[in-house]
Amino acid sequence: MKLSTIEQRLIGCLLEKETTTPDQYPLSVNALTNACNQKSNRDPVLALSEAEVMDGLDQLQSRRLVMCDEALSGRVSKYTHRFCNTEFSSLQLNDQQRAIVCLLLLRGPQTPGELRTRSGRLATFSNVTEVEQALAELQAQELLVKLPREPGKRESRYQHLFGEADVAQAQDSEVPLNEPQELSALLDEINQLKAELQAIKQHLGL
Question: Tell me: the pLDDT tens digits for 86-126?
């Protein structure tokens, strides 16, 4: 399931609003546009037009990931997702797993600590260990990947695998991938300086 940036945002918003504001769900195009363009709890912050949102919804409908519900909403078309936990979806997630997927779709890669802090309205995690357990379950289903730990960071971030571009397989090593590259560059620079110093010595007859 490979989703564009707009499709990821739309699915994330539908998942979020279904849980946090069930009385306003399904969502109209206007409500979805506002949800997609929220300045809080979104990364990156987008400025989508209703036309762009409609295009994204059309794509999702063609893939049967979203359904337009006109019967319950009169003249205003409203939309529900078929992304997970429906009779139309093979993807079945518990509340904790669903919350994590929702947050990753809305805010990109995050650490277990960030996910626990931001999940308050979506699911309950007693501690970070519960977050890590849910992440491990999702990773076992190949729905997300553990990214290499960034220099200076205590926790690794996790990224969902619903994007258009595949992410490289998770590196469980605690050593960042760019560290060997940086070391190699430093060694090259040292060797170059040594060569320049030797040339200077030869020039001076030392």
Answer: 988 899 999 999 999 999 999 999 999 999 999 999 999 99
For residue 78, give the amino acid letter: K
The set of residues, in sequence order, having a beta carbon less than 8 Å from that of 122 and lying 6+ positions away, is 16, 19, 20, 95, 98, 99, 102, 103
Phi, psi dihedrals of residue 26, rounded to the nearest 5°: -65, 170
Could you report the per-residue pLDDT of 124-147, keeping only the tens digit for each?
999 999 999 999 999 999 999 999
Quote the distance between the C-alpha of residue 101 and its chain's center. Answer: 8
Closest CA to 83 of 183, 8, 172, 194: 8
Check residue 3 and report its DSSP letter: B
Residue 145 forms beta bridges with which residues? Answer: 159
**Spacing of C-alpha 154 from chain mean position:** 19
Q: Is 91 exposed, middle or buried (0-12, 13-18, 19+ CB in 10 A)?
A: middle
Q: Once rounded to an integer, what is the mean pLDDT over residues 193-198?
A: 75
128 burial (CB, 10 Å; 0-12 / 13-18 / 19+) is middle
The pLDDT, as a whole number, for residue 205 is 74
- Runs of H (alpha helix) within 37-127: 50-62, 95-107, 112-118
Rounded distance between C-alpha atoms, residue 140 and residue 134, angstroms: 10
